[in-house]
Amino acid sequence: MLLLLNHYSKGKCAWFLLLLSTVIFESIALYFQHGLGLAPCTLCIYQRCALLGIFFASVIGFTAPNNIMLRVIAILVWLFSAFKGFNLATFQAQLQFEPKLGDTCSINVQFPSWLSLNEWFPGMFNAYGTCAEKQWSFLTIEMSQWMIIIFACYLIVGLAVLISQLFSSNKKAI
Residues 120-134: pLDDT tens digits? Predict the structure, then answer.
């Protein structure tokens, strides 16, 4: 299996599928916000940023899948973003289901001054919801719990792809 993952990581198809999955999840988030009127909270916006990190990792991997250096950088960005997203989603679920006394969520997003995404793209990066509010569920699983599952899947697959880089595949990738 690791040889197969190594083989696919050297082709554009797998990186395109990763890119496509992030575009789909970002589109769903924007539909929830603008189509269904669900207010995103600060943690939701930060999770969007984590998904964008995975998106940029997939772009790096897609542009040069045969370059081992760029491929490993893409995988590391993917893993870092998935890990951050998983932590954010876990914290949001904790706020919703088992809040501790000191747990709070900032009202406004805080980006660096040189990257004011909430000012440049307010329709995508401006938070006006409450982190502890349960707004949507599917199959009795809340949105924050779905995000834990999504980021855990990204993390597991990313780790497997990283480990697979230790194995050599001589086949030509697609």
Answer: 887 878 877 777 777
pTM here? 0.85
Give tens-digit pLDDT for 153-173. Answer: 999 999 998 988 887 756 555
What is the rounded (10 degree) CA torsion for 99, 45, 52, 152? 20
Q: Which CATH number fits the domain 2-164, given the four candidates 1.20.1550.10, 3.90.70.10, 1.10.540.10, 2.40.420.20?
A: 1.20.1550.10
Task: Please state, in angstroms and rounded to a whole number, the distance separating the CA atoms of residues 74 and 57.
Answer: 4
Determine the 3-state secondary structure of 167 from DSSP.
coil
Phi and psi at 118, nearest 5°, equal -65, -25
More confident residue, 15 or 105: 15
- Catalytic annotation, residues: 41, 44, 48, 105, 131
